[in-house]
Amino acid sequence: MTEPLLSIDEIVTEFRVEGGVVRAVNGVSLDVRPGETVGVVGESGSGKSVTMMSALGLLPGHGRVVAGHARFRGRDLVGLAERELERIRGREIGLVFQDPMTAFNPVMTVGEQIAEGLRRHQAGLSRRAAGARVVELLAEVGIPAPERRARQYPHEFSGGMRQRAMIAMAMANRPALIIADEPTTALDVTIQAQILDLLGRVQQETEAALIMITHDLGVIAEMTERVVVMYAGRVVETADVDTVFHEARHPYTRGLLRSLPRLDHRVAELPAIGGQPPNPQALPPGCSYRPRCPLNQGRDECLTRPELNPAGRGHRSACHFHAELAGLTGGVE
Amino acid sequence: MSAELLRVEGLVKHFPIRGGVLQRRRGTVHAVEGVSFTVAAGETLALVGESGCGKSTVGRTIMRFHEPTGGTVTFDGTDLSTLSTAQLRQKRRELQFVFQDPYASLPARMPAGDIVAEPLHIHGVGDRAGRRARVRELFDLVGLPAQAVSRYPHEFSGGQRQRIGIARALALEPRLLILDEPVSALDVSIQAQVVNLLARLQRELGLAYLFIAHDLAVVRHLAHQVAVMYLGHIVEYGDADTVFTRPAHPYTQALLSAVPVPDPRLRDPARRRLLQGDLPNPADPPSGCPFRTRCWRADDRCAAERPALRVRTPSGADTACHYAEEDARNEGARLSG
């Protein structure tokens, strides 16, 4: 098997909050191999974005990686100097965020910003050459009239066009890895389809690996090869995309899939997951999913934290009773 | 179909664009351009479409949060525009609104029980004890624990806050709820709970819903009738099963095909109808068909003549497209196959 391009290893991240510390990510590991598309899926507060921001050194001031490693091409990004991280982000790792408005500087033209990114990472690239490359990049991501657009400011772009420009910026230096954090969440569905199509094409052309962080299981099913499901700061299941959608071995994954309303078939009542996601400041002892889990049934095992154990080929589940889900289709009652 | 409860006819809402030091009118946003539909008692009409299509403005104009530029709104046989302020206030009890973001729409410094009791206060319903009993009943109805009456909005999760918003809307025993993206801000596992709650309340209380949403899968689950909006117009309107399985308007087809399918075995990039470009500026809408600038079927006729919303295919819904027929068959085969 190929060496991983990025190997996140037992990352633990904490945030200082009023009255204490919240552990937002609690021992998360995941690997991404060259050219691979990995989906990281979870609801708000699951830690999916924080895991990536921890690896990239992009945590806000009150956040801190307290343990773990994130090896990218053999170098540990955790604890790396900001100057070194800056060299990696934007050159070897391209980033696409949910809201491109916050990623762009509002007082610089879109063209200037992409050119700056090019020149920062490509010594000796002339201003003129960078400008020409910017126009090429904007055209590649499907922005009409790219010469004119390059001279405009971010607010003059529509949401979909801004996201295209952000993708142009992310791919500018031919990164080996693109990390897209909810890249289509703020967009309308027809624009989402355009952006997903574009991301897929960019990835194919550049052969970059892609990490797609999203809450949308539809996007995961359409775009990814391997899936990491997160809940309450931990990975609860990981497998190839087909296995996750058809042979999931964690009750949370099953519950989530079953609770989705579908366009292609109707049910009388949605089988919702009961209860609420736990408060990260007061996680239940043992398995975090226990209070909502149909497999729990008061069993003692659930009071100890389940490891992410093998459940099949390339398949892991953090449920003591994952074997009980083998061969079952659909959900668990 | 049961009795008609709400009838909207030729609703128009324009917003002036003002600018300069004198705030002179510089243009007009054509937010809603002649929209007509009916909602039957006890049923759900979903108003769907993307940002800027005017669906929320329709809901807000019916509620008179905005004054309509034109058209009529008839509720239970009464034209609301003919009512005096006092009469309108009485009618409005039967017509309530639920906001998307329960956090922004609930007063932060008021305990949940008082929030739900507020409409009873305003309309002078019952005495203190009676109101308290009604609040308990409403909490029970929407699945909130009784002791939650004394808690403040920030102490609730998003799903629970939306339950408070629904309980408040139900306080005066309305017959119609206008729900503006009521589950869009919620996580998947919580969204299903609130969707189920809305379905149950409709069954138990015989409520009619005008359900404004962009999430087509949620709409598929709840709606009896669907109206698809684009740039201020309804482009397709009819029975939900028909619109979802035999969409006849190119925009509806594109919209449905764009929804990612949560099953990798059904992955098929060729299925998607990718639209070109963005929504036109609603202050400067195209001539003729509003969708023609992004439509793969558009020709000169579409620029010259706006297609009326009417039956155009043997088994399809009302469609505002000159070329509805052929695509209805094609897309119908794809979706059922």
Automatic annotation (TrEMBL), chain A:
Gene3D superfamilies: P-loop containing nucleotide triphosphate hydrolases. GO terms for cellular component: plasma membrane. CDD domains: ABC_NikE_OppD_transporters. InterPro entries: AAA+_ATPase, ABC_Ni/Peptide_Import, ABC_transporter-like_ATP-bd, ABC_transporter-like_CS, Oligopep_ABC_C, P-loop_NTPase. The keyword Ribonucleoprotein does not apply. Belongs to the ABC transporter superfamily. This is Dipeptide ABC transporter ATP-binding protein DppD. It comes from Jiangella anatolica. The lineage of its organism: Bacteria, Bacillati, Actinomycetota, Actinomycetes, Jiangellales. The gene is dppD.
Automatic annotation (TrEMBL), chain B:
Residues 6-256 form the ABC transporter domain. The keyword Transport applies. Keywords: ATP-binding, Nucleotide-binding, Transport. The keyword Cell division does not apply. GO terms for biological process: peptide transport; transmembrane transport. It holds the Pfam family oligo_HPY. GO terms for molecular function: ATP binding; ATP hydrolysis activity. SMART domains: AAA. This is Peptide ABC transporter ATP-binding protein.
